[in-house]
Structures are given as structure tokens and as C-alpha cells.
Amino acid sequence: MKILAVYDTYMPEEFFRRAFAKIMKTNEVRFAYIMELDRKDPETESEKSIREYNGNPDELASIMKDEDILVVHAAPVTDKVLQASPNLKAVFCVRGGPVNIDIASATKMGILVGAAPGRNADAVADFALGLMLALARNLVTGVEFVRKNEQFTKEAWDAFFGHELGGMTLGLVGYGNVGSRVAKRALAFGMSILVYDPYVDKAKIEAPGISVTGLDALLSSSDFISIHAREAPENENMMSTKQFAMMKKTAFFINTARGSLVDEDALYEALTSGKIAGAALDVMKVEPADPTSKLVSLPNALVTPHIAGASHEVRYRGAEIVANSIENLIAGRPVVGLMNPDVRSKKWR
């Protein structure tokens, strides 16, 4: 098989080479770099259908030859790219969600599309717990206090008193790769877990310390609410005025999933009116996060620049997952993470 792996700044060539070492022994693997900042305004329907990509699809199409398999990180894979190699049978993205690939066009062409599900699940779960600790124990406020060399008065000392996680209730909205890992970590802190996820069998969720409930009950009963739902039209602004009004005034809200899940105006109102105690957001509707955003300026809000999944381990793990998928595909074994498994067809053999 001829394979092209397209690397970039976030996903350097060395990670691909390390993960693809076994594949390179029996297949022809080529590596290419794409200019991430060389972007163009979307013009075609295919270009408009993809997002969160870096680079120019015209450049990617120009470096394609007669590959059977294309592997990318954030490079834009449009219909033009898919048509650039007459032999193309599969495209893999080393991210959890291949939003930079025109899956509809690939499916029409009989080209498989695969991803690396769960590649950053541990990293995001760690980060979510870190945000909970930061909110509960005023960690950022403490750091800023020292940096500003402020006077340590009794009033200042009193302001640093926070809460321990043990004995608190954590509400998880979504119990997939990330949510389930957050639960495992929270249990180790002595928290009780409430879960709302209508897409996961209740029997696969409930365990000692973990209960399944409705969304309204979760919102009204939890001390911390962490969102791990998928991005979908039906989930847009799933956390809005009504939902924040149901939360405890002492509750904290965390979002490490997607900015589209939260009505930011409603969250701002909830934070400034005292309807909830605080929030931590690693994702926003507009990214990178605008430092002038009214949410960023709030003392009871922590905003980070979408870095929950930014661990060194994630980069290699994504390439490793895809390498295993390619090995299985070539060998005729089942492949995890295929977005259009029904198209495994005439074109593959």
C-alpha cells in the first residue's frame, strides 16, 4: 500500500514515524508537511462543509500522487483532495473527530474515513479535574495574589477558603470516552457521581458511587457540573438560562467539550447575578478565546485556550491508534473509529 502522512506543527513528523514504524516495513509510506497558515476563504460546498482545519486544500491536493491511504491531523480534506489520487481508498485523521474531512464526499466516492476515538480522553479528563480543583480551592486567585505582592490581611486570608472535593456531588452530562474517565478520577477524590446520557445504556453506567438521572435532577442536585456531550444541532446551547437557573447558587460549571453547547450570554448572567458560584471554560463559541470577552473578565470564571487535550501523550496516541487501524484494515480485521464503515467496498480490494 502507498500511504501519505501529512504532518504539521502540532503533529510533527517524528510522531508519525514512530507510530508507523511497523507499517513502513511492508508498505510505501511518504511524509509531507502542509503550510498551516496558508488558508483560503471557503468557496465550494465541500470547503464549507469542513472546519477546525489548518492549511490550504489546493496545496494538499497538489502533493497527492497515487496514494491508497491518506493520513492527516488538521489538514483540510475536501472533494478536490479526495479526487487527487485515483487510487485513494481510505483517509484517516489522528484526531477524535475528523471535522476537517468532507465525509459526505468521501462516502459518495467509496472512500473510508477513520479517526482516533478517545485519543485525548485521559488528557481532557485530567484537565477537567484540574479545573474543578482550581475553582473549588481558588488556585488562580492565590497565584495572582502572590504575583501582585498584595498585603496578606485577614480579609485576604478569608477569601482563599474553598471546598474539598470529597463529599461533593459531580454531575456529568455525557458519559462517553471523556465523561467515564472523569467519573473514575472523581470517585478517587471521594465524590458522588450523577450521570445524564440518554445514548448510553444505564446498565453500563451505574456502579458504586455512580447513578443515572434526568438532566433536571442532575442540575439541581450537583455541586459541580461538567459537560462532556457531543457537538450536534440538537445539543446547541443545551446549557442556557433555564438550565443555569436550576443549579445551586454554590455550584460550579465546567465545559471542556465544545463551545456550541453553552449559551454564553446566559452563563454570563448566571455568574454576575450570583445564580451559580463559578465556571471554568476550555472551549468557547469563538476560538481562540477572545481576551476581551466579557466572560474572561469575570473574577469567578476561568477561561483557557482549548488546551485540555494538549498533552505530549495525545499526539503520539492519535498516530498510534491510526497506525493500528491501518494495519487492521490491510489485514482485513475489524477497524475501530470508522465514520462510514458501510463503504468498505469494491474500491478497497
Characteristic terms for this protein:
349 residues, 12 strands, 7-stranded parallel beta sheet, 5-stranded parallel beta sheet, 34% helix, Rossmann fold, alpha/beta, 14 helices
Q: What is this structure's SSE topology?
A:
Layout: E1 2-7, H1 13-19, H2 21-24, E2 28-33, H3 45-49, H4 57-63, E3 69-72, H5 79-83, E4 90-93, H6 103-108, E5 112-114, H7 121-136, H8 139-147, H9 154-159, E6 169-173, H10 177-188, E7 192-196, E8 210-212, H11 215-221, E9 224-227, H12 241-246, E10 252-255, H13 264-272, E11 278-281, E12 301-303, H14 312-331
Parallel strand pairs: 1-2, 1-3, 3-4, 4-5, 6-7, 6-9, 7-8, 9-10, 10-11, 11-12
Helix pairs in contact: 1-14, 7-10
Describe the largest sheet.
7 strands, parallel
Whole-angstrom Rg: 22 Å
* Beta-strand share of residues: 5-15%
Through-space gap between termini = 11 Å
In the CATH classification, which architecture of the largest domain applies? 3-Layer(aba) Sandwich
Strand order of the largest sheet: 8-7-6-9-10-11-12
Mean pLDDT: 94
What is the tally of helical segments?
A: 14
Can you tell me the residue ranges where pLDDT is under 50 for at least 5 consecutive residues?
A: none
Shape: elongated
Number of domains: 2
Fraction of residues in H or I helices: 25-40%
CATH homologous superfamily annotation of the largest domain? NAD(P)-binding Rossmann-like Domain
